[in-house]
Inverse folding.
């Protein structure tokens, strides 16, 4: 019999209406009034008395202020994290710049030494060496040599390799002209 009454109550009063009634009752006790004028009908409509509405209206601004304060604190924390990451990136950028400078200095010294080596080689020996290495490197080295020595090396090279190197050098010169004109 008891179970039958509980099942009947579930159909008459929904869980939603019970929860709303409890919230209204708690709010009215906080405000010092009693939930005498709260009525729950079958459609889950709640009639809230004027004191409860005033209470809710009064705490709405305080709730907004608290929410804004919490959001502001969260933004401040995020800004601090972003600043720390930026500082870490600046340190990494400075390390990278130092490493890049060391690398470029090394490459310049190596290139200058390599150019000096090819300047002192006989044209036929230099031609054979330049035919074997990467074509872009060979073209760069030939560009660093004097025109007289470069032409002697081209004379000793295979015609196809010499033509390829000449094409690379010409395209590099064209690119440099276009960059200076822009």
């Amino acid at each position: 019999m008891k179970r039958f009454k509980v099942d009947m109550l579930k159909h008459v009063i929904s869980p939603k209406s019970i929860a709303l009634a409890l919230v209204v009752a708690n709010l009215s006790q906080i405000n010092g009034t009693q939930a005498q004028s709260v009525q729950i009908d079958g459609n889950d409509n709640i009639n809230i008395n004027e004191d409860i509405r005033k209470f809710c209206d009064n705490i709405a601004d305080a709730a907004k202020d608290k929410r804004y304060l919490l959001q502001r604190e969260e933004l401040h924390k995020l800004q601090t994290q972003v600043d720390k990451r930026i500082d870490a990136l600046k340190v990494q950028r400075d390390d990278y710049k130092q490493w890049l400078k060391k690398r470029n200095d090394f490459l310049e010294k190596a290139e200058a030494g390599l150019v000096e080596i090819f300047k002192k080689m006989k044209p036929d020996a230099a031609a054979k060496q330049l035919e074997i290495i990467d074509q872009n490197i060979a073209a760069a080295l030939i560009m660093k040599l004097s025109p007289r020595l470069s032409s002697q090396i081209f004379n000793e090279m295979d015609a196809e390799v010499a033509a390829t190197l000449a094409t690379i050098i010409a395209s590099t010169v064209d690119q440099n002209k276009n960059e200076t004109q822009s």
